[in-house]
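Fold sample X.
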Amino acid sequence: MKRQRYIAYVGTYTNGDSKGIQVYELDTSRQGFIKLSETPVNNPSALTVAHNGKYLYSIADEGVAAFRIMPDGLLEHINTAPTGGMRGCALCMDANDRYVFVGGYHDGRVSMLRVNKDGSIGDITDGIFHKGLGVSITEKNFQPHVTDVCMTPDDKYLCAVDQGLDQVVIYEVDYEHGKIKKHDIIRLQIDAAPRKMVFGKDGIHAYVLCESKVAINIYKYNTDMDEAELQDSVSTIYQDPDRCAPYGLDITEDGKYLFVSNAGTNTAAIFKVKKDGDISEICQSKISGEFPKVIKVLPDSDYFVTLNHEQDEIVTFKMNYAKGYFLQKGRPVKVEKPNCIYIHRLQ
């Protein structure tokens, strides 16, 4: 049986020696990272791969950069296109790879860009600036700041997480005309500061990571994304909540476990997803690093990594779900200012 190969694309800030996207082969037998190459991109802060597995897209200072994924996993630049706004911080694609959607932290803009048949980024088909002011009881900047974008499981709607307005704005997507239209708004608690959002595998639950509230909000929704109901809100930390800022969020492929990284306290928390969509904590522990900006579950779900931004490293951990603990696996991989990662299975 042919061994499945995985490539890890790691985006890094480029104000130092790093040039952009670090390309690694993921050694699944040892859960190690073997560096293959480095691809120049100006400050890649978010990465995604087309569902057809042929192209990778990255946020860049200039907009969105498109790359062809070669048979060995290396990247070949196709083009870079502007988004119509300031520098983005999040991106996603629809299931049929027709469009790239970009979220802008600095200007609160959601942009929709066409993807051409050759994988290149085409024209901007739509763009909406979020407007208004949030209500802040802390020193958080409460102007519009889109920190995440993701598609609903049925691909009908785009969800734009706005940290400044304490909202998740739901847009209906018109694929034929390349337009997005506001459909509904999920209004979170005052000063919740939502940062990330993922959907459960049951198709009816969504999990929103709230930085200032230091919690995961669990929403139950219907297929029309109308009146999403707050089912529960679960803390991501059991001590020092004033020092904690949850940053990273990921879910296993089978949807059974939810992973969170907490900056400030420098911990990782793992939760079990119950049949009713609620979550219960399995374990929480220090990750022996500074500012775990990203947490990512590896393909077999028994291992995960944290990208420790201030310590310039990626650390791998082995998870023991039955006994409720995780342990570091091997030595950290030194990477300058890592801030995003995408694990891609070679075809």
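Fold sample Y, listed below.
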Amino acid sequence: MRSRKQAEGAKVPAAGRRAPEFSGPKAKKTSRNGVYAFSFTVFAVVFCLVIALFSSMLSVLVVLGAAVVATLATLSVRVAPQWERVVVLRLGKFSRVAGPGPYFVIPIIEHVAARVDQRIITTAFVAEEALTADLVPLDIDAVLFWMVWNPKDACVEVEDYSSAIWWAAQTALRDAVGRINLAEVATRRAQIDHEVKEILDEKTRTWGITVVSVEIRDIAIPPDLQDAMSKEAQAERERNARLLLAEIEKDISEMFVEAAEVYEGSDKALQLRTMSLIYESVKDKGGLVIAPSAFGEAFNNIEKFLK
């Protein structure tokens, strides 16, 4: 988690503005130079053929006519990249989905309504001040991975499917966060991701869009609440440490009581313990050791004791 000040750079675009599809490293767009080169080639070939056919009567009108015929040919014969599908309308009604590869369009009667990219698209979005179930405002940064599987529905059923799924994702994230408490947000990220994905799938199914995954990148909480949570966590750790220490002391005291009962019921055990203490005190230092007379009594009648 990070503070609200650190999240100021990830603001939600104003209403009516389209959100950026990716706010991370600059994306490398796939080149469409091949499509443009194909159109230019068609124009050049048709233009040259017309000029060659009417070379004997070459004039300004012939050149203009050749340009018009070449333009119509360019508008009629087109090509779509492998990842692209083209929605074609005929007299305002849906006709077909063309591509990939070359396709034909009847000028004036037909026109291209949309070019739909069917690759997985990455969209970053932010839910600002989303309220949890215990009314704590959070700034949540997330990434949405989605793709268009039905170009017809994406073109016909929604005006701007890219912006629509961005706003739907933001709303779904707010709904999912509003069902849980603050303490559960950090520990239930995977569940929130799954819930947002299910909500979006239900909304976008009729748009011809499928949501691949939703991943929360960051959660920003208010700074004052961060301090309170930090103090609460420290107090909880100190409490656990004190409880553990008390349990250890209790176990040690119980073992001491059991040892005292054993020594009380057996003089031999007490004498062995006394001799062990004397040995431990002199094994490293050596030499003469001055000890209370009670320690010396442990060695009285040692032969009888060993028997």
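Sample Y note: The CA atoms of residues 137 and 205 lie 30 Å apart.
Also: The first helix runs from residue 33 to 53.
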